[in-house]
Each structure stands twice: as C-alpha cells, then as structure tokens.
Amino acid sequence: MNNKLTLGIFGFGVVGQGLHDIIKTKNLNLAIKRFVIKHPEKKRTLPAELFTTDANAVLDDPEINTVVELIDDAEAAFDIVSSALRSGKNVVSANKKMIATHLADLIAIQQEYGTSLLYEGAVCGSIPIIRNLEEYYDNELLHAVTGIFNGSSNYILSKIFNENLAYATALKQAQDLGFAETDPTLDVGGYDPKFKLAIVASHAYGLYIAPEAILNIGIDKLSASDIQFAKEKNFKIKLVPTAREINDKSVILYVLPKLIPRDNILYGVENEYNGVLVKAAFADEQFFYGKGAGGHPTGSAVLSDIAALRYGYKYEYKKHIDANGLAYSTDWEIEVYLRYKEESFIEHLKFTSISERYYAQDFKYIIGKVNLSNILKNRDIIDREGYFLAEIA
Ligand SMILES: NC(=O)C1=CN([C@@H]2O[C@H](COP(=O)(O)OP(=O)(O)OC[C@H]3O[C@@H](n4cnc5c(N)ncnc54)[C@H](OP(=O)(O)O)[C@@H]3O)[C@@H](O)[C@H]2O)C=CC1
Ligand SMILES: N[C@@H](CC=O)C(=O)O
Asked: Domain containing 98: what range?
C-alpha cells in the first residue's frame, strides 16, 4: 500500500521545522497542506499562506488525512490530538507530557474510532524504542528498561563533567540549541524523562501509571561538592529513569540522578545523546544509542511514524490486554548517596543500612540503603536547596 498522505502540522518550532527540512529533501509522496501556529506575528521561512492560527482549518479539512502534533502545550495538544483521532484522522505526536498524562484516554479513543496515534519521537528523540518494545519484545521477558532519556540534562552534565562549565551556562546552551523544553524545569527536574518512562512502562509492561505516582528527582540541586565527590570516586553523574520487573508481580519505576562508574555503558553517553538499555531474560543486555533531542533527530522519528501510517500501522497495546497480572510497586530498596542539611531528615528516610558518612561544616553526606517508598514520601524535602540524592549504580 502506498497511500498519499496529506498533512496538517501543528507547530513550526524546533521539531516542526526539523521535520519540514527532512521532508523537503526527498520525494516522499506526501504533501504538507497547512501549519497551525500560535503567534501569527512571528517571521516564517515559508510562504505566509501555509500558516494559520485556526486549528479547525486542519481539523475540519477532509483532504487532510494525517495530523502531526508538534506543539509545546500539553493540554492544547490533547484537545487537538483527540479531536483529530475522533474525526477519522491518524495522528503523529512528539508530546511526551500529553501522551503520558492522557494515555488511557488516547488508547480508548483510537479503539473507538479505529484511528492510529504514533509517537516514536516522544521518547528519546531519534531512538526507535517504542516500536521495538511494542513489536520485538512482545514475547521476551523484559527485566528492565533503563538509560538516559533526556538530552538536555545529559548535555548539561556532560558540559559540567567534561568541560567544567557552570550549570547555568550549560543550561543556556541546551536551550539555545533547541534541546530543552519551553519550561526547562521539566528537563532538569526529571519530569520529562518521567513522562518518557511512563510511556515506556506502557509498551514494555502494559501498565498505565499516572506520572504523579512516579518518583522523579532531577539534577537542578547538584552542587560543586557533589561534582567533586563524584569525580574523586571516578564516577559521572547521569539522570537515569528505571523500569524494572522486581518479581513476577511487580514493576518499579523511578527517575533519579545516578553515580555511573567508568565500566557502565551509560558512562560514555554524552551531550544530547540518549541511551536505552534493555535487559531481557534470554537476549540479556541490548543497548540503543542515538540523539535524544534536536529538530532533525526528532524530525526523523516523526517522519518514520508518518511513513508507518502509509501502511496502516497502529500500536496494538497487546501487553495492556494481557498484562500478566503485573502491578506498579514502590517497595524496593536502593543504595543512594544523599547530601543533606538537617540531621533530623536522615530519620525520615529510614536508612536500612549505612556504608559511609561524611561531616564537614558545609558538606555532609551519607551513603546507604533506603526504600523507594520513603524517598517518594520525602521527595519535597529532597528537592530543596541543601539536598541532593543520587542512586549508586
Ligand atoms: N526540541 C526537542 O528536541 C524535542 C521536542 N519534543 C517535543 O516536541 C514538541 C515541540 O517541541 P519544540 O519544537 O521544541 O517546541 P518549540 O517551542 O520550538 O515550538 C513550539 C511550536 O508550537 C506552536 N504552538 C504552541 N502552542 C500552540 C497552539 N495552541 N496551537 C498551535 N501551535 C502552537 C508554536 O507556535 P509559534 O511558532 O507561533 O510560537 C511553535 O511553533 C514538544 O511537545 C516537545 O516536548 C520531543 C522530542 C525532542
Ligand atoms: N527536552 C527534551 C527534548 C526531547 O525529548 C530533552 O532534552 O530530551
């Protein structure tokens, strides 16, 4: 089948322009009829008649059979995507916040209206992980999916560790390069990789987990003492989401900074690159590596989804139908490094064992084992100035 696709694209920012650059290089048997944007006063590189601020100019156009949603507003995106799917149009989106937050509704709408929503570009930019989890690992016993899922925070950490750049300078560069979200707290606070993890959990394990239920701690409270500690021990710090089946019934999910030793495959993943490490029962470890942010890498994943729609591709969400009785759990012990301010806080975390403590006037840390559920309960304190928590690999 080689159906001609007529596209209406929402968004002409980093990813929208990246997608357009790629499409114009090839004769792909697809036409872009309209771009819907927000600010009509902005200068564009394409003819003005291609742009509109009226969503209905795309949603109500019977000639447009495919909507591509690439905007930076998750709630507006949900309205656009759900209306398009309901009106019989297939959709491609890169909006991880929207997808993670509304996944159950989006699946129900697709099933009711027989339309397809694809979102490879939403998780780790150019890395084809969703279709692999959906198709290839269907019959595999997946022990874990982990790695580096956020290009901006990885870019910042690389610049800090490899070039001694200041945090604020590195963040500004990640923004200028188009890697960061409009609100970069989503990146550096670990929310963006958490949305991606929630989507991964769905395709890996058939679980719908509301992002609010998942622990995320970011890199925004990283201090010079933490960096010195990591460097002295030959670690790098990376922001690492983890989905792991801990027994036949339970899956844990969390996003934490992690102290990564030199022999760990994530140690060499730098800048805006992402890496997805899949641990499967019989295949053992497999590693996917590629650019996780930026207009062209993400545009290439979006284009791959558009092309897949030509032959009627849909996610089947088979693992949701047969979830093997798996449930989300937070009852799991991990080893952490915690820099802290108030001594009394240590009581709250209820360390089950302590292997190292250090006290100085302006730098106190503890290394030991804690239950994930206790970190989750105390997340708001850990997220304050004076605290930084990282998992030990
Ligand atoms: N940047 C990246 O590397 C990646 C981004 N993503 C995701 O892709 C999406 C787009 O990101 P990005 O391109 O970086 O964002 P940008 O901020 O560069 O662009 C956002 C675009 O959305 C348009 N827009 C915002 N609100 C509306 C609305 N209500 N209706 C129509 N258009 C609207 C803006 O219009 P206007 O031009 O008029 O301001 C702009 O063109 C986000 O969901 C992001 O999370 C996913 C993977 C990688
Ligand atoms: N802000 C995101 C963009 C891609 O998803 C990131 O930095 O990874």
From this structure: 5-128+296-321
pLDDT of residue 323: 62
pLDDT tens, residue by residue, 20-39: 999 999 888 899 999 999 99
Q: Provide the pLDDT for residue 138.
A: 73
Give yes or no: residues 275 and 386 share one domain. Answer: yes
Do 181 and 254 fall into the same domain? yes
- Total domains, the chain: 2
Which ipTM did the prediction report? 0.99
CB atoms within 10 A of CB 183: 12
Using an 8 Å Cβ cutoff, are 389 and 257 in contact? yes
Ligand 1 closest atom vs CA 17: 13
> Where a domain ends, among 306, 321, 336?
321
- 247 shares its domain with 388: yes
| Tens digit of each residue's pLDDT (9 = 90 or more) over 249-306 | 999 999 999 999 999 999 999 999 999 999 999 999 999 999 999 999 999 999 999 9
Q: How far apart are alpha carbons 95 and 32 in whole angstroms?
A: 20
Residue 166 CA to ligand 2 center (angstroms) comes to 20
In angstroms, rounded to a whole number, what is the distance separating the alpha carbons of residues 306 and 317? 19
Q: Out of 84-88, 138-142, 324-328, which region has the weakest mean confidence (pLDDT)?
A: 138-142
Q: Nearest CA to 65 among 92, 89, 33, 91?
A: 89
Query: Does 68 share its domain with 210?
Result: no
Under DSSP, is residue 32 helix (H, G, I), strand (E, B) or coil? strand
Shortest-distance ligand to the CA of residue 69: 1
* Pair (173, 81) in one structural domain: no
Q: What is the pLDDT of residue 321?
A: 75
143 and 25 co-located in one domain: no
pLDDT of residue 165 exceeding 70, the answer is: yes
227 C-alpha vs ligand 1 centroid, how far in Å?
33
Check if the beta carbon of residue 152 is closer than 8 Å to that of residue 182.
Answer: no
Q: Which residue CA neighbors atom 32 of ligand 1 most closely?
A: 37
Q: What is the CATH number of the domain that holds 112?
A: 3.40.50.720
* Distance between CA atoms of residues 225 and 237, nearest Å: 13
Q: What is the pLDDT of residues 216-244, one digit of tens each?
A: 999 999 999 999 999 999 999 999 999 99
CA-proximal residue: ligand 2, atom 1 (nearest): 180
Is 133 a domain residue? no
Query: Mean pLDDT, to the nearest integer, of 52-68?
Result: 98
**Structure tokens of 3?**
């159906």
Catalytic residue among 196, 236, 291, 364: 196
